[in-house]
Design a protein that fits this description.
2 copies of one chain form a homodimer.
Chain A lengths: L1 E8 L5 E3 L2 H7 L2 E6 L5 E5 H12 L9 H13 L2 E4 L5 E3 L2 H6 L5 E8 L1 E5 L1 H13 L2 H11 L2
Antiparallel strand pairs in A: 1-7, 2-6, 3-4, 3-5, 4-8, 7-8
Chain B binds a DNA duplex (30 and 30 nucleotides) through loops.
Chain lengths: 148, 148
DNA sequence: ATAACAAGTGGGAAAAAGTGGGAAAAATTT
DNA sequence: AAATTTTTCCCACTTTTTCCCACTTGTTAT
């Protein structure tokens, strides 16, 4: 399972190390796409296949209006990049994705169950603060779920 | 069952011994995550799986399409850490979790039924005092109401 | 009381992770 | 076709993490 938060450098060749703990799960080929909420999503090829099937299946319970679905899929597919992980666990971030979320020298890499998210540090902190504020009851859920 | 309160040192490599009595129950891989009230929760991998399944709504396909589900999962998984217990029963506390609850050189480790909590000593004492006061207060209320 | 053991703590050395940069290979331009 | 840029591959340095061993303290057993 992909969990935890890491801050890594983006070098001047646009390379970022994937957290070592993620590498086994992610494998050698991953898919990077613009995500939602000003971050990037990283999926394993396998997970991506599942996601894309779901998204392109217009009979699924995700019943978009046709036009909406088209543009949403354009967003997810059109800008997705298949990326190779190099021999020491780094990936090359396409410039346009970097720009999309305003990345510069560092990236926050977050494991979220079965996907990885990439954030610009400031955006991430804002997001975290917002979550934290409305999170007391979420934490309570956590605590009580432990006992069930 | 996990019970009792222990005060352990955090050494300069961020290692803490788990109380010997907890080790068998916790196993070799645990998950540490910020909990309620300025403490950390420690779950066994098994328990964690149960909790996360229960809360992440991962049975609903493509949970990332729903905004509040996204934040919740981010909150839940992004701030957790999977940690190995070393050969003599210690774990490595990630810096960001240490900071989260203001840990420095010592930690109070408390067994709470089926999970373990980690506290900063001062916070723990305040928490305890508050509980005691409340208990006395409640007892008095009960007594004066003549119900006892 | 002494020995044997277990628990908690600390530290050195080896391994791994993260970062940076040069040179070969490939692609693009002129 | 040569020159320039971009990409890829490989090596090297630094820091962090991991692994292993040892010391200390307190408990149990003989």
């Amino acid at each position: 399972m992909l969990i935890g938060e890491y801050i890594h450098t983006i070098d001047n060749k646009n390379r970022v190390s994937l957290p070592a703990k993620f590498r086994k799960i992610l494998g050698k080929k991953i898919v990077v796409t613009p995500g939602l909420d000003k971050c990037l999503f990283i999926f394993t090829s396998k997970e991506w296949l599942k996601v894309s099937k779901k998204l392109s299946d217009s009979n699924s319970e995700l019943s978009f209006l046709k036009a909406d679905q088209r543009s949403f899929n354009r967003y997810m597919f059109g800008r997705a990049a298949e990326v190779e992980v190099d021999s020491i666990g780094r990936i090359l971030l396409p410039e346009f994705l970097k720009e999309k979320i305003g990345l510069k020298n560092t990236a926050v890499i977050v494991g979220v169950e079965d996907r990885v998210e990439v954030w610009e540090e400031k955006t991430w902190n804002e997001q975290k603060d917002a979550m934290e504020k409305q999170a007391e009851h979420l934490a309570e859920k956590l605590a009580s779920a432990g006992t069930i």
